[in-house]
């Protein structure tokens, strides 16, 4: 399982727009745009996780709204009980909160992640 986690984190950190379907996590960057808040931008990505795959603990330099497109994802936010979301459900993740996401369903799970983040900061910061 550690190997899958390491691969997953590497893909999340590096982006995976050109990833192949056999990869455990595929990230497709959709849009990045300046917004009216000085020093911030909006970033939207699609994240696809194979069954059983965990996107290990990480945080973002701004807020995230995660919308489950398909499948079932379990989110664990630091200091909170896990929450399981199905397709059509959303979750707000505050800036800097360490969290993980795991595909707990039998098939592929996908989320649409929208971030309002500090411009120029790394989108994903691995937890220590």
TrEMBL record:
Gene3D superfamilies: Jelly Rolls. Residues 1-21 form the signal peptide. InterPro entries: Cupin_2, RmlC-like_jellyroll, RmlC_Cupin_sf. It holds the Pfam family Cupin_2. The keyword Signal applies. Residues 46-111 form the Cupin type-2 domain. This is Cupin type-2 domain-containing protein.
């Amino acid at each position: 399982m550690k190997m899958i986690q390491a691969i997953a984190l590497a893909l999340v950190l590096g982006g995976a727009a050109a990833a192949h379907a056999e990869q455990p996590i595929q990230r497709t960057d959709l849009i990045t745009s300046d917004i009216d808040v000085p020093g911030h931008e909006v970033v939207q990505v699609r994240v696809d996780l194979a069954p059983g795959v965990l996107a290990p603990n990480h945080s973002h330099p701004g807020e995230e709204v995660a919308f489950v497109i398909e499948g079932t994802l379990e989110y664990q936010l630091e200091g909170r009980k896990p929450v399981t979301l199905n397709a059509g459900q959303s979750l707000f993740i505050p800036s800097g909160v360490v969290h993980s996401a795991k595909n707990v369903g039998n098939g592929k799970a996908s989320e649409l992640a929208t971030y309002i983040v500090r411009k120029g900061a790394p989108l994903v910061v691995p937890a220590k």
